Amino acid sequence: MTKRALITGASKGIGAEIAKLFDENGIEVLAPTHQELDLLSNASVDSYLSKLNGSVDILINNAGINPIRKIEDLDDATIEEVLRVNLISPIRLIKGILPFMIRKKSGKIVNISSVWSLVSKPGRTVYASSKAALNSVTKSIAVEVAPHNILVNAIAPGFVDTKLTRQNNTEEEIRMIESKIPLGRLAQTKEIAELALFLCSDKNSYMTGQTILVDGGYTCL
After folding, report:
1. I need a surface site. Which of 38, 39, 87, 130 has the fewest CB within 10 A?
2. Cα–Cα distance between 66 and 158 in angstroms, integer?
3. pLDDT surpasses 80 at 170
4. pLDDT band with cut points at 50, 70 and 90 for residue 38
5. Residue 164: which pLDDT band, with cuts at 50, 70 and 90?
6. How far is CA 91 from the centre of its chain?
7. Are residues 157 and 115 in contact, defined by beta-carbon separation less than 8 angstroms?
């Protein structure tokens, strides 16, 4: 039977690569647009969940926002937006989809976290906090749903070679970043997607509650 995967933020970057790889491996992909699923709106999340036909076997909480602001420049609206997109809406999506998985006694959930959930840099207070909290959500829900054969994990990428990374950094800055990574290069989106595919496949039958760093050794230094 074909599995169905709901992937948020699948229009670009890591999310797009996960969607492509899943499709190539025979997994039906649901990749809602911002108009179909607005993670800033509880009503939109509830509406989208109510319109899902049938079960979702796999949930990938990939969408996220990362406005870089020093603490003195943070306003309430930015704090609330980051927490809603990166943390609250993923929790609400998990809550809404779990009944399907529980009835089937199977399911896979992967939360896309970040290396900045474990280490940090200036300007990432809210983003780092939201991703660290997502790691804790991953552990807590994994324990709760384990009796139903549902596995929940998180992937924490380091520096990934995406259009956004290239837009936000000059070639010289990218070389500086790469010089701080033991493997000497940025991750490719497919490397993150391959891990997501494994975690959501039948090959993964026992790994749950884990936050897996994919950072080329960056956090080992």
Report:
1. 38
2. 14
3. yes
4. very high
5. confident
6. 12
7. yes
Contact indicator for 211, 158 with CB cutoff of 8 Å: no
R_g (Cα) of the chain, nearest Å: 17
Q: What is the mean pLDDT of residues 194-221?
A: 98
Give the number of other CB atoms < 10 A from CB of residue 73.
10
The CA distance from 180 to 166, in Å, is 17
Question: Selecting from 3.40.50.2000, 3.40.50.720, 3.30.565.10, 3.40.50.2300, what CATH number does the domain 4-158+188-220 have?
Answer: 3.40.50.720
The torsion angles phi and psi of 151, rounded to 5 degrees, stand at -105, 135
Distances in whole angstroms, Cα of residue 20 to Cα of each of 11, 13, 152: 10, 11, 21
Phi, psi of 187 (to 5 degrees): -75, 150
**Phi, psi dihedral angles at 57 (to 5 degrees):** -85, -25
Nearest-angstrom CA–CA distance, 213 and 77: 30
What DSSP element (H or E) covers 156? strand 150-157
| Least confident window among 107-111, 148-152, 165-169 | 165-169
Q: Which residues are catalytic?
A: 127
pLDDT of residue 159: 97
